[in-house]
User: Fold these one by one.
Assistant:
Number 1:
Amino acid sequence: MTWLGRPPRDQQLLGQQGERQALHYLQQQGLIHLESNFRRPFGEIDLILQEAQTLIFVEVRSRAKGRFGGAAASVTPAKQRRLKLAAKAYLQRFRQMPPCRFDVVAIDDGKIDWIKNVIEG
């Protein structure tokens, strides 16, 4: 896959691999995959899954090294705002608002940490 004719950077490849790894892990936990990479001009949601009747918006963060506070610490307040805006756009397709939450899957040096309900919606 290329971006505007250029090969993807190592960071992009790490992110894509992390999303695949997170999706596989979450499906093993019984979640149902609904959508990946839901994009709007103001934000993107990496994974959207369902657990019982609850929609789960998942931000996947991967770090090859545990520098700079690790993967979970990289979900900044600005990133959280963009996630919320994208989630609002996704939720417009529903007549009745389903229960939902925001989770983070942090992958540091290949180790997965699933952090549930991390962003106030």
Number 2:
Amino acid sequence: MSVATFDQSQILQIDPQAGQHLQRYLRNSPNAIGVRIGVKDSGCSGYAYVLELTEAAPANHVRVDAENVALFIDVKSIPALSGSTLRLVKEGLNETIKFDNPNAGSYCGCGESFTVNPDIETQLSA
């Protein structure tokens, strides 16, 4: 049996503006303790990001604190998310959190789902 080891600071980073954005959401949701992050099977390209507030520490998640936000990252999703940065993107009057993910191979036309290389695909399927 092998145990995967990783540097928690290298799993996921947040730019300061995205951190402030997430902090506002957490303040407006008094029961939320942090943000749950992962990937799930979805869309025409294979995977979609999960980014949602959580009221409890989910099982099988690693806690990473960044920009004064508690992030709960799905352990199974770590290979697909490792090295990613959450960025706040402003488009006109809208603001949204985007993943800058070095592991994403390509995105579908609508931008909702993405592919990963075969090695990561194998890890996600395990």
Number 3:
Amino acid sequence: MTIDHIALYAENLEDEKNFFETYFGGTAGEKYFNEKTGFTSYFIAFEDGTRHEIMNMPDTRKAENILRMAGYAHIAFHAGSMENVNALTDKLRKDGFSVISGPRTTGDGYYESCIEDREGNLIEITV
């Protein structure tokens, strides 16, 4: 069995789409819009075939950002090398994104950094 996609509600759908295209090499499909409900979404495809759905409803709002709340905690992207982790983390920091941790080697042997997107979602960049 494989994961088909992971989905995320976003307050600013276009900003999230641009974020995943600009920094993680994703390609957005056509925007879906349901006139009855106001639901909109994009599927972002990545080079290995995985997909990430970003969605919005007119009443979508951020929950309080609690680092250890129950539920999905983060999405992780494999950058291929320590140098790529460092370079992408530096670029994101320079572009105004918050670096939460790293780059560093974790206790379980991953080399990673963790950043927040503009809506507070955690993104790991790892080898």
Number 4:
Amino acid sequence: MQLIPVLDIKDGIVVHAKLGLRAQYAPIQSPLCASSAVVEVINAFLTVAPFKIVYIADLNAIMQNGNNTPLLKDLLQTYPQLTFWIDSGYQAQPHFLSCFSNYQAVLGSESYSTEKLPTLALFEKNFVLSLDFANQPLGAARLFTDPSLWPDKIIIMTLVQVGSGLGVDSEKLKKYQALGKNKTLIASGGIRDKADVLALKESGIAYALCASALHSGAITAADFAFF
């Protein structure tokens, strides 16, 4: 099991994602890190474990209100040892950041309506697909039912459980494990502690996105010996 720390970036700083209510996201206040500066938060995560992958949501780009691309470019250059999975919202073609070897595009279903779905072919499955859920699936319905559209790695992103402390959506993960045989599923939303991570591992989930439990100290450096 590999945990992937998450940074939600809005207007150049890290914000606290909770329940998918993006308009209400405020600068993060964390026992792990006294700053909401992106580099400071990444460095704080690296004191917990030698993470290899960091997930970033560029909320400005996702909400079509500007972007944080210059900052992301700086991060790719500053941390060549890290692979950054980056969701920059809808992309009609591969992002220019693709020239960096440590960049991996994340394409979220919420940004791909049925009309925009054909553009996925331009990526030749070189992306991580995020199947996004609020109270219902977000995006083109076919993305949720047709595994032939899927790349190897699929995030099950339950936005209403992000930062909630409600636990993971095990039933949804089981459903998509059955639908996407031979695909690698990544859990996102609701991880509370070590027990939740071990339960995911036991169920065959190889990766999980996590932020709140790392910031709060509910998952500590000592726990990684068990993952």
